[in-house]
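tl;dr need the bound structure. longer version: we got a ligand (iron/sulfur cluster) that a collaborator sent over and nobodys looked at where it sits. i said id run it. heres the input, straight from their email, havent touched it
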Amino acid sequence: MVVAVEANLRKLGGFSGDDVPEQDLLRSCVHCGMCLSSCPTYRITGQEMSSPRGRLWLMNAVADGRMDLLDPVFEEQMYQCLNCRACEAVCPSGVHYGPLVEASRAQIEQHRSRPIPQRVLRSVTLGWLFADVSRMRGMVTGMKLYQKSGLSALARKTGILKALKLEESEAMMPPIGGAFLVPGKESWRPRKANKRAELFNGCIMGTVFADTNRAAARVMAHNGNEVTVPVRQQCCGALAVHSGMMEEARTLAKQNIDAFEAGGDAPIIVTAAGCGAALKEYGFLFKHDPEYAERAERFSARVKDVTEYLVSQPFTNPTKAVNRTVTYQEPCHLAHAQRITAQPRTLLKSIPGLELKEMKESSLCCGSAGIYNLIRRDMANELGDRKAGHVIDTGADEVITANPGCHMQLLSSLGRNGSKTQVKHIVEILDEAYGGKKTADSGNWAVDTQ
Ligand code: SF4
Ligand code: SF4
């Protein structure tokens, strides 16, 4: 079948318009099947169609005009995929799978109309709520009130949550305690700072997990970094990219590129694996944009996961013993999309008294995958239960991770499986081993609050 490809990639067989999957990426699969056993959906279903090779075959079929873009099988497979990128990490041909499935979803969204309730839900959440981090702060304030007022306990007790099928979503939410981290309002300045870093705050991390971001800043300050949180930054746009809403993602990405530009070449430190993976791919997102292509590349080159950065620099070993046993759950977007696997373990092993017990399948997706666990509950729960079982088998006191989505999915999966194992971000346990919040008063470094 002859495929028409224009120079600007606006037509490839059944794909057309913006964000057409790139032909060279699409054709690089050699069908060897080495990715099959790494794919969570293939492991659960055992079906070729639900494997990376099967999905690439479907994309090629649309690109060759052998399958309709709006064929329900194509849509089902593009959205059954968790976009966990485990296939990418093991592929000998270097298939860059993430951008292909994201472009395929963008194509589906451009060419078909969803039912009205779905359209409304997507535009209210991904198009409006995530478009401005101040709206996210407003929503999380509401959730905080709900938790603190006792309404949450009442809703659970009366069975309302169960009746509304919201019990599992609610179980994902950790207690929201501290104040939000608002960009520009706090900075960390060690007396002997020898480098400068800028923190990417994120939408969920800067609100629900604001204290985790503060812990990261303290850990960075212990290692000689002056840390600031640039104003006007927004959500990274990962959820929009994963949902095929590329224009919404680009709008957010442009604001982030603008916000961090004044920082020169200072590293941009990220505490959420999903955000880090998305930020590192801004270059790809703007590949065909003459105004932003170069700026996006420069931005992406500065992005570092906090664990990646700490291990790449002279590192001050923590001295306070943490006498507990932990296991490590690898976020897919850290292990597979960013290929960061050794650094978190190196950091955990630097903590005196801490025992790291590896779990089985630590890098198999926990089922979180952005909003996957909200929209595809059966598959997400199956993966969550499998993960919880592996965590429980280690007998660890805590499970350490590095992504808010995994954190929330672990909370709900462990709870569903009757486990009280605590979930923590790696910077929280490192911060504890450096002495925690109290060290801000130690005279070695100061926190500025405006
Ligand atoms: S490992 Fe790579 S080349 Fe082999 S089937 Fe999977 S995607 Fe294709
Ligand atoms: S991204 Fe994950 S779920 Fe999707 S095909 Fe690759 S391994 Fe399978």
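gonna send this back to them w/ a short note. The longest strand covers residues 195-200.
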